Amino acid sequence: MSIFEKLESEVRSYSRGWPVVFDRAQGSRLYAEDGRPYLDYFAGAGALNYGHNNPVLKKALIEYIERDGVTHALDMFTVAKRDLLETLDEKILKPRELDYKVIFPGPGGANAVEAALKLARKVTGRESVINFTNAFHGMTIGALSVTGNSMKRHGAGIPLVHATPMPYDQYFDGVYPDFLYFERLLDDSGSGLNEPAAVIVETVQGEGGINAAGIEWLRGLADLCKRHGILLIVDDVQMGCGRTGPFFSFEEAGIKPDMVCLSKSLSGYGIPMALTLIRPDLDVWEPGEHNGTFRGISPAFVTAAEAMRTYWSDDELEKSVRAKGERIGAALQGLVDAYPEAELTAKGRGLARGLEFQNGELAGRVCAAAFERGLLMETSGPDSEVVKLLPPLTLTDAEVGEGLEIIDASVNAVLGK
């Protein structure tokens, strides 16, 4: 029995599908301790958009550490935090005409979500929050209350209340008009729906199965929230930082959420970091009302600011993500067309892509076949029925081709054509 099996909890998951010991990582590849390379289409569940050990970010981090820059600072003023805020304002917010104040809620995406939910309730004086079918927002109690996956919800061990799920885009395959049910409940005094403080939404549901909301659906949701005085929270933890093309996944819809949750690839280097962006008029916190010991991790500030300067001073990365995403999407659609009897579905936007199978057993076998061939992919969806592709945004054209060849071979190995 290995030390992992002896001491690590049964809750571990990814290591079950990839039973090797990894030692090094660079760019789009992880290397096992025996030296075997694996092309990474997982990218730390979206936390490594700029690849493993990105050399530009690594240089900035090493220089900061070597000069004894402050590592841990809670919410004290530091040079690293100032640089981050100035860079965020200059490279991200001002070019998009976004006016937000910044909450440092703690190190993870769930921290960003919890801060948004808590503040929405404080601002509005309401308790109820609207979430969507197949949503995933984190594993803490508040975030779980607005998550759809039943297995994850059951892990809470207590009733998850004050949240009401509504149908996500295409949940009824377009049979009913968008928001028919939601708006009827809002307008009907006999519906029993408590007046919501906020709506929380992912523009592309990653863990939920790579479900991409339509642009018009997102615009309609923003309009509905505005008309009913409901705060709109966009959870951009996995789909932000360029995953769908632009820095924010909601940009294409032309909407301006009241709050935005960011984490995962925000630091750019895999170092824990999260932000909750809020409209300035919503900033009604009392000092210390929401805090956390690890909300001032300066090394993450350093790499985040460097990533913004390096990749978001122009639109080159955005254009590259769109082009590579279209190439992968077309290849996945080719598999759909090649196996009509399997009833596959190609899904996604940008470099968040998925191939949906009829069940999780088939999707799992495809991922296992890909691992045998040197490619890391995971599954998602309520029954793990979607093969999920989240490669680094910086992967090369050759690595796109290599990954697609392995995916094609893996699907063929499972479906037997």
Briefly say what this structure is:
By secondary structure, the protein is an alpha/beta fold. The protein has helices spanning 3-7, 14-17, 43-46, 55-66, 79-93, 109-124, 141-145, 150-154, 180-187, 215-228, 298-311, 316-338, 360-372, 397-415; strands at residues 22-26, 29-32, 37-40, 101-103, 128-132, 163-166, 196-201, 204-205, 211-212, 231-235, 259-262, 275-278, 345-349, 352-356, 375-376, 378-380, 386-389. The model has no long low-confidence stretch (mean pLDDT 97).
What this model shows, in words?
- Belongs to the class-III pyridoxal-phosphate-dependent aminotransferase family.
- Its EC number is 2.6.1.76.
- One of its GO terms (molecular function) is pyridoxal phosphate binding.
- Pathway: Amine and polyamine biosynthesis; ectoine biosynthesis; L-ectoine from L-aspartate 4-semialdehyde: step 1/3.
- This protein has 417 residues and is of the alpha/beta class.
- The chain folds into two domains: 3-53 and 317-415, Aspartate Aminotransferase, domain 1; 59-311, Type I PLP-dependent aspartate aminotransferase-like (Major domain) (Aspartate Aminotransferase, domain 2, 3-Layer(aba) Sandwich), CATH 3.40.640.10.
- Helices cover 38% and strands 16% of the residues.
- 47% of the residues are buried.
- The model has no long low-confidence stretch (mean pLDDT 97).
